Every structure is written in structure tokens, then in C-alpha cells.
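S2.1 Query sequence (DUF1449 family protein)
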Amino acid sequence: MFSQMLTPAYLPFAFSFVLMIGIGLIEAIGLGLGQFDLDGDFSGDGDGGMLSWLGLGGELPILIWLTSLLGCFTLAGIALQQGMTAIGGAPLPWLGASGGALVAGAALNTFAANGLARILPGFETTVISTDDLLRQRGTILEGTARRGAPARAKVVDRHGQAHFVMVEPHDDADAISSGETALLVRREGQVFFAVPDRPASLRLP
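Output C-alpha cells follow.
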């Protein structure tokens, strides 16, 4: 079967299988493209439109939907080529098989995606204002934050989502070192100003 998958008639399905495994591994180790703001949830309005027909009518992250579609396309393609080989003695050319498998796979994925949406935990998309990060604590990730020389910090909002912002100390004389936490007290543009979580007598000059 493995050698058969490397023949031209099966190559589209071998490629989709490898791509499905790759996306699945990315999701499994927690590096989903959502971390780079490419992931998303699709919500339909339940009116039976095209999105609902494609299986995007419920809340389901796009990468999971895509992984399901690739799996259905692969299974439909292999089944089609196996069936044509059994009936006619040879598989279809890869282009014709791909078209047939895409139609069959999309139809099959409608049921698979809707089933996954019911099984998987609910996904929530939380959108917050930048100013909502004020009065939250951030941790300096690298370097030392000084006035005029902001450092990158990680802030976890009330929903548990991480944000990465540039931070300067609120007071001119302060400096906030890597690993220290500080309270964000104001913002100017993209830069937050913070008070370090240590007594004033211990703050770096």
C-alpha cells in the first residue's frame, strides 16, 4: 500500500495525508497557528447556507476543520482509486480522481466537522481592549526596562490569554530587570508604563 501511495494516481492523496499529519502535530504540541493570530473560529447563523453545508456552521477552529477536510479527502481518494482498480483494473488519472475525491470528501467532512463541533469543548473568542491590560501585572522577558528604552513583557489578561507588550518604568529613576514583575499603570501609544513589584528603596537607579 505504501508503494502504491507513491504512484502518480495516488500522489494527491499522499500529499494531503502528509499535510494532515503535519497540521495535526502542530495542534497537538500547542503551536497552533492561532498563536500567530492565524487561527479562527467560524460561526454560522444556522440558515443552511454554504458555510453550514461545508461544516463551518458551528464553532470549530479552522485548523481542526482543515485537518478533518484533508482526512476526508484522503480517505475518499483512496477509496475511489481502490474501487476503480477493482472495477476497471486501473485507477483514475490523478486529476480526475482529485476532483471526485474533493466533492466526496467535502460532503463527508460536513458530517465529520459537525460531529467534531459537538464533541470538542466549546471554544470562546475573547476580545479585549488594549486598555484592559492596565492594572494587570506583566513580567519582563528580556533586557531591562528603562525610561526611553522599553523592554518586552508578558501580560496575562483576565481570560488567561497572554499578551506581549513593550514596557517602560513609570518613574524616571526606576529600572525593571528581566524576570521582574510590574503593575501596568498607564499607556502611551503602544508603550505601557509600569511600577515594579518591589519596595521603592530596592529599585534600581
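The two ends are 69 Å apart (CA to CA). Residues 31-55, 201-205 have pLDDT under 50 and may be disordered.
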